Amino acid sequence: MNNRIFNIFSIVLIVALIWADRHFQIAAPVYGWLLLIYMSVLFCGSYFIQWGFFLKSICSANTTEKIVALSFDDGPDGAKTARILDILKENNVEAAFFCIGKKMTDHVDLVKRISQEGHIIGNHGYSHHPLFDLFSTGKMLQDMRRMSSISKNIIGRSPRFFRPPYGVTNPNLKKAVLLGGFISIGWSIRSYDTVIRNEGHLLNKILKALKPGAILLLHDTSDATVQILPQLLQGIRDKGYNMRRLDKMINLNPYE
């Protein structure tokens, strides 16, 4: 169910309730519970990008082949990103890095290295502002385009792939993505590597969740991710999976 269908359903339900209230005098708490349910659905629709409630996002590849794609958010982050690149190179793995524009300007050489070593750069906005989800469509689009401009200046290419900051979607973001010609990219495995400190638990959590066509969400700002990455890559292979670069797995061009 997407936002449009849910709103139609809600309108029909309200009309039905008004009719029923006139004939059967529905108790007031019923309206309170319905409002709570309505708000809960909107919240979950915003938070769970896999629902495609407000904005359709690619969260996995439609395949039975045992392949997965690695993606890293919130970088580049100096030494951590550099170490992750070292590990990926040692293991001959290509990944997607959804970069924050304002960080790219501080790590130009690192951005170039990401691209030169065969990884793709995705758009994660310029500011990653805590209130990004409350921006107007115009302000969101401006933020996204500013990151794309920085990418164009550094590597000569503008990303088409966009991952919403915090993974939150809403009607304003949908309009910005469509107006900007972006492709929204989600995930099917959220590692929570920014909050899970137990490295063994983090590793097991990811490996247990593996499925054909999965997109893994990691962060190149996380110490835990840096520590478990060699074991994670080996663990993925031990389970019979291959790692494929995101754009190759979903068969879409990552740049304009």
How is this structure best summarized?
By secondary structure, this protein is an alpha/beta fold. It has 10 helices and 8 strands.
Determine the structural class based on helices, strands and strand pairing.
alpha/beta
**H-E string:** HHEHEHHEHEHEEHEHEH
Q: Work out the radius of gyration.
A: 21 Å
Q: What about the largest sheet?
A: 6 strands, parallel
Strand tally is: 8
Helix content: 40-55%
- What percentage of amino acids are in beta strands? 5-15%
Terminal Cα span: 31 Å
What is the mean predicted local confidence, pLDDT? 93
Shape: globular
Low-confidence stretches: none
If helices are DSSP runs of H or I spanning 4 or more residues, what is the number of helices? Answer: 10
Structural commentary:
This protein is of the alpha/beta class and 256 residues long. 50% of the residues lie in helices and 11% in strands. Strands 1, 2, 3, 6, 7 and 8 form a six-stranded parallel beta sheet that branches. A two-stranded parallel sheet has the order 4-5. α8 links the parallel β6 (189-190) and β7. The longest helix is centred in the N-terminal third of the chain and has 22 residues, at 3-24. The protein is globular.
